[in-house]
Input
Amino acid sequence: MKYIEKLRNSGLRPTKQRLQICEVLFNNKETFHFTINNLAKKIKKSLNAKISLATVYNTVHAFEKKGYLKKISINTDQTFFDTNTTDHHHFYDLNEEKLIDIKNSDVGPIKILKKIEGKKIKSVEVLVKLED
Amino acid sequence: MKYIEKLRNSGLRPTKQRLQICEVLFNNKETFHFTINNLAKKIKKSLNAKISLATVYNTVHAFEKKGYLKKISINTDQTFFDTNTTDHHHFYDLNEEKLIDIKNSDVGPIKILKKIEGKKIKSVEVLVKLED
DNA sequence: AATCTTATTTATAACGATTCTAAAGAACTG
DNA sequence: CAGTTCTTTAGAATCGTTATAAATAAGATT
Output
């Protein structure tokens, strides 16, 4: 069980539910984007397990806090998460309401010429909205 | 009343409430960021009027649709609006939970090297998160 | 101005996403 | 195994937002 150690090392007990969610989230060739509801359905299908919605919330937030997931900002009512935790950017397709990754190397270097006294930059995220 | 024509030209009836909200939103030297709750309080103080929360929502959304306000994406539970509708970017101060504008000219040109078949770029927004 | 029509406001109910709660169950420690 | 702590769970509670339907105001028509 490849996730047991990873969880334990993060101070999270490797429970059955967490391990199952790990399977769904991290046992893929490609990273992907999801909403909580989205993920809850995926879990119900992918495994034939019923994990309580509260647990899905708990787990996703725990994983986010540990840095295994990233929350993504789009001005919509939906909250998206990303299993790709590396620095990168996004397209947001306004018609299909879907996210698409943009590799860092596919965005020219971004120079922020303005500085704020006493603050340092934690991240720079580019969101490119697409329409037909 | 300087907003009456503006509203009428947008197909919005210049009601007392809308005109009052226009005062609060657009009668300022500087543009600013706000949340709905935020704005509702400001209205209650600035003017001594009590506008129904539903009307504040309606009006803000109407103004947004007409392009007089911009919604801003940050991954937090709060929905921000901006009275600055020109193309620009933002700092988000994670500690103070506050937005700061970045003029377009303070961000070097952004090259998006990836293209999506059949889609065109509607906007490019940069969000720079700040910490202490 | 009186009347008609349509848009707007309003309080409140309804909603959906998320969080909280407290009890039951599972994981860890010695 | 016994004791402790963490996790899961269903359901209640909460929060921001949207829908509802009646009252009101604006605009158009006469």
Q: What stands out?
A: Chain B has two domains: 3-72, 86-130. Residues 86-130 of chain B form one domain.
